[in-house]
Write the structure tokens for this entry.
Amino acid sequence: MPQATGDEDATDITGVKEEREVAVVQHTSRWSDLKYRNVILLGLSFMGLFSAFQTCGLVQTIVLQNYFGQDASTLGYVSLGILYATLGCANWFSPFLISLIGGPKIAMILGGITYSLFIAIFLRPYYATLYAGSVLVGVGAAVLWTAQGVFLTINSDKHTMARNSGLFWALFQSSYVPGNLFFFFYLNGETKIEDHTRTVLYTVLLAVSVMGIAVMFFFKHPVVAPVSEETLPVAGSSTEVQVKSARGNPFPAMVAAFRLWKGRDMVLLSFTFAYTGFAQTFFGGVYGTCLGYTAQFGEMRKSVVGLSGVAIGLGEILGGLAFGILGKKTIRHGRDPIVLFGYFLHLCTYFLIYLNIPEDAPLRETDASSYLTPSLYLGVFCYFLLGLGDASFNTQVYSLLGSVFRNDSASAFALFKFVQSFCAAGGYYYSAYLILPFQLIILVICGFFGTFAFFFVEWKHAFDDTVVKRASL
């Protein structure tokens, strides 16, 4: 009988252990599902908000030129340059602002509202409101994007970062499609954007941006995770700095960011960040203006700017799916082949654009010829290639930052947006003066250095991981 009792006790203990293990697995599964839901909602909210803003930014140069006259043919570049310069400056304060506001969720909502206010300016644009709005949305963008990087990192781990960054990127870049498709069909071949047309366009874009902000209210934050080594705060990390500075001042967060920038990895990655900024200027505002200003494209040249936005969106989506969501397969040999593919694709695209677009098209309406007879279809196809190449860069940058700088994510993403934004601002500045060939040369040179700088960081950490794995055997 005593032996039987011992067996029963052992059976009870085993059963309790199994129940606990099942409970832990179920809790972990619910936590993972909640984080995945957050990533989906994050992508959907940005898709709505940027369906409006991407369209606004892509067409604003030709819209302002139609409204103010030929003297304002590069006013859109000035506005966007101010926006990105402000964004770059505000990025130093964004980690502190996020902690002061109350976390990434509320920060993204408030940042999104500044985007809607900027879009509303185009209902009746004035020089003063345009410049003031550019500054306002620059601050809002700094808060929004740094909060987005923190929120994405919180809802990912080293096993899901590539998938989640690719999923977010695909949903976010889907924003190029609806707004620009609406612009294309609504303009319907008009060569001049009248006041009524502009009012309807921006009223719809404003409504869509508000819908994107509304989705952010459904984010679940904070996420309560199972206690594991990966989720514990690390002393000296940017997360800890944010918590300590929540009721203090921005300097601890700024010091953490500067300290991170002193490292060789971040210095090298700054070249990659810089290229993504210059490239963003080109495809986000300059190249679409080139299409709209090329008279040989005929009556469709203004409305086709919207169609080109759809093309770049399709390229970004394909890149996000191929290099992000399917990242476990495409990243098997490292991130560097994907970045090299993106740079090679951009090189080919820049050459095609050089042959197809008149050299003064970034600056004014032109009847000039290029080396080829300007082809509208080739012009739009080049936008698709630009989007695919850009996705190759950005998905891998997000993945690398989330993996290498996981414990300093706020500072890492703030530095990324700082360098990218200032280079984008510089790009808009020189775009108002330089003809197309010189702009393409700048992109080729910066892309070369950015690509190989990324290689060095990727190879270093791949080697370090290999050493750690061998030491653990």
